[in-house]
Amino acid sequence: MTKKRKVMSIMTCLMISFMLATCIVHAESFSTIDFEEYSKTIINEYAKYGVAIEMEPLPNASYTKELLREELNKVEKNVEQIKRMEAAPIIISDDTNDTGIIPRAMYYDKNCSATITKGAVPIMYTVKVTAKLQLDAQRDHIVKGYKPTLKMTRAIGFADYISYKSHTVRIDNSSSKAKNRNATYTIKAEVKQEMSVSGVTAWAKHTDTLIVTFRPFK
User: Fold this and answer.
1) What is the longest distance spanned by two Cα atoms in the chain?
2) I need a labelling partner for 110 at 20 to 30 A (CA). Which of 5, 84, 125, 172 fits?
3) Which residues contact residue 35 at a Cβ distance below 8 angstroms, ignoring those fewer than 6 apart?
4) How many other C-beta atoms are found inside a 10 Å radius of the C-beta of residue 117?
5) Helices 75-86 and 65-73 meet at what angle, rounded to 10?
6) What DSSP string runs through the chain?
7) For residue 38, what are the CA distances in angstroms to 34, 71, 131, 156?
8) What are residue 73's DSSP bridge partners?
9) What are phi and psi of 120, to 5 degrees?
């Protein structure tokens, strides 16, 4: 074999090897993986940023390593959006007081409610907060506040879900005017923000702080 033929033979072998390697890498990128591997990898990546997410597979969806890489590349951007929503201000409607009163000696109970909206279209939710307050009929004072109830009344970009976690109540009877005496609830509640992840239905779970003030004597 001449020197020229040897060089051509080596070049041909190199080209074939390169083409085979490219095909293998290409096939590897689009190889199918199962939902468990796909979801677990994404969930673990978000967990590094302190974000807990839930995922459910869509019917007939298929998952590949290439798709997984694309979703992992979106994580930081999605985390920034979630953090911005957590820090969004809340809007509280004028609280409304139910007429249901249960006389009990000098004390009686009164149900108060308020509507809280967080965020704005296209990502927002509205929650109705209801709390029962024990009042002193003789002094027009608030005695104590009971555990509140929460109801999601509107959700855009969120699941129709809210879960009470904890609360504190600060009672202020210092005003000389009864209508200004109030109970301020600081409530921790878990919500689920919808996320865009290919092939699945996904939510980011985070705990929001909701603050509402009731004035039962107004």
Assistant:
1) 115
2) 125
3) 57, 61, 63, 200
4) 17
5) 40
6) --HHHHHHHHHHHHHHHHHHHHHHHHHHHT-EE-HHHHHHHHHHHHHTTT-EEEEEEPTT--EEHHHHHHHHHTHHHHHHHHHHHHT--EEEPPPEEEEEEEEETTEEEEEEEEEEEEEETTEEEEEEEEEEEEEETTTTEEEEEPPPEEEEEEEESEEEEEEEEEEEEEEE---SSGGG-EEEEEEEEEEEEEE--TTEEEEEEEEEEEEEEE-TT-
7) 6, 10, 43, 27
8) none
9) -155, 155
* Token pair of 24 as six digits: 């293998």
Tell me, what amino acid is at 4?
Answer: K
What would you report as the CA-atom Rg of the chain, rounded to the nearest whole angstrom?
29
Closest among 105, 51, 112 to 82, alpha carbons compared: 51
pTM over 0.90: no
* Per-residue model confidence as pLDDT tens for the chain (218 residues): 555 555 455 555 445 545 544 444 444 445 899 999 999 999 999 999 999 999 999 998 999 999 999 999 999 999 999 988 888 888 888 666 655 555 556 899 999 999 999 998 899 999 999 999 999 999 999 999 999 999 999 999 999 999 999 999 999 999 999 999 999 999 999 999 999 999 999 999 999 999 999 999 98
